[in-house]
């Protein structure tokens, strides 16, 4: 039964309708007793079904950095639907996919210049993992099949992504995936409450050497990491860590994949984490901010040498070089949204804006140090998180309760595991930074 009997708050939905939708990454039983429905969005705010303005403290799901309902994207998408609503993804093309691919390469670090479109971050990860294995086969090194991920890594929910991922709760229920082993995470006790990149931890990359000694590089296809781990609760890389990973991968002839589904297109104050941290991977996965979240779309961006390895494979030209792709790869409406979204980032100088406003975000977020239950605070760019001490025997309860209190106060923040996560819109105003952190602090204090 619904606790909330207000018909407006339920948008007239019946219990049967609520039950029909098996919601993703949600406590379905809890939600359906007391639904939190969102009916519209504009700028940095949602409107809830009960008529309240809710500040979007996670930019959707790290998707909508340019703010909601941007007229330029609405216009581009509407035009595209009228002109070409769908076009076959295989063996035929439409101009916008080539335009968008080229535009993306302009925002990539040098060398990453071949773009394979997908429908999501998870599909981008699967694409990168499959390409890595196929690449080594093409090179005559078919034994290179195993992957190295990292504890606390998140790479989406498909089989490959779950296998290389390192969030226990996402793996436990599913059993055997693909062959993957994991580097340790980089959260060290001496780095608690670090601002930006922690000083200590580059040595943890040397664990890769130890793993290669055990598994042998001849069996390893690729290492995959998020430059900044997002879903586990915003874990910036220690100074020097990513560079060291790159050196070890080069030394042992292993591909390095950066999963930049969250960090791509501005969140760190740079176009990519690779640019921000000065380390170029062999492949990069992107999604989310690519279309400002308006239409689902992802991509895997590869170095030309990887692409060329497939193109030079021999055989008749009409043969597929890579038997892989999705019905919705390079969807024309998604491409239109992507082009409009990247235009906005450039025209409004939003990536630069992240750099300008993030010091205030850092200062405000770290002002919560000393608040009860807050055992760590981490941040980079416009991403930040708190670790919340667990209630005895009830992991993840307090973060959920805190997020719900924020929601009641008109602020959407994310609870994930033992963390509260913030990913502010790039368009955030100074007062909004203060407001959301103050509301978060009050919510924690009320719980205490
Ligand atoms: N990789 C990373 C780093 C992500 O943060 C996410 C989504 N949070 C994904 C992959 C999966 O993306 P999607 O949910 O679009 O499949």
From TrEMBL:
Keyword list, A-Z: Aminotransferase, Pyridoxal phosphate, Pyruvate, Transferase
Lineage, uppermost ranks: Bacteria, Pseudomonadati, Pseudomonadota, Gammaproteobacteria, Oceanospirillales
Assigned EC number: 2.6.1.18
Name this polypeptide is given: Beta-alanine--pyruvate transaminase
Cross-referenced Gene3D superfamilies: Aspartate Aminotransferase, domain 1, Type I PLP-dependent aspartate aminotransferase-like (Major domain)
Keyword Transferase: yes
Domain of life: Bacteria
First-level EC class: transferase
The organism of origin for this protein: Neptunomonas japonica JAMM 1380
Gene Ontology molecular-function annotations: beta-alanine:pyruvate transaminase activity; pyridoxal phosphate binding
